TrEMBL record:
Keywords: Phosphoprotein. InterPro entries: Bact_response_regulator, CheY-like_superfamily, Sig_transdc_resp-reg_receiver. Residues 11-130 form the Response regulatory domain. This is Response regulator. It comes from the Bacteria. The lineage of its organism: Bacteria, Pseudomonadati, Pseudomonadota, Alphaproteobacteria, Sneathiellales. Transmembrane segments: none annotated.
Amino acid sequence: MAKNYNFKKLDILFVDDNKNMHLIVKHLLQAMDITNFRGCLNANNALKMMKKKQPDILITDLKMASLDGFELIERIRRGEDGCDPYVPILVLSGQTEIDTVIKARNVGATEFLAKPASVGSLYDRLVWMVENPRPFIKADEFLGPDRRRAMRGYEGLERRE
């Protein structure tokens, strides 16, 4: 694990239609001493919960019935239903194909973590989000974290100048 941060006061909203994942994520967060945890079994309820109280971080799956994680992220980034469009969004998904990761990034996900997650991997991703905040880009068709990553030391043909 990385640095020792105290995440105890973080307010986390977790969205996944799998009840077993709620139990797993709850235990992962409790192992990090995070007890302010709310869970939703669908994205529509998550939007309602966010209207009442904005989380510090949203953790969401992508594959869900009715409204999937991609649509949830898009609606949040548009500020629909009174949501804070700048909330950090961590995608926690078993769908790890490169096209899926890129699509999640392109709709406005802040970070991506593959299932199954461990306490260490989730903690490290939260630390990464704290230590490397991504600036937000506001354009005609996009509001979300800057999709570009610094690639220091990269010497390939597609190197940015």
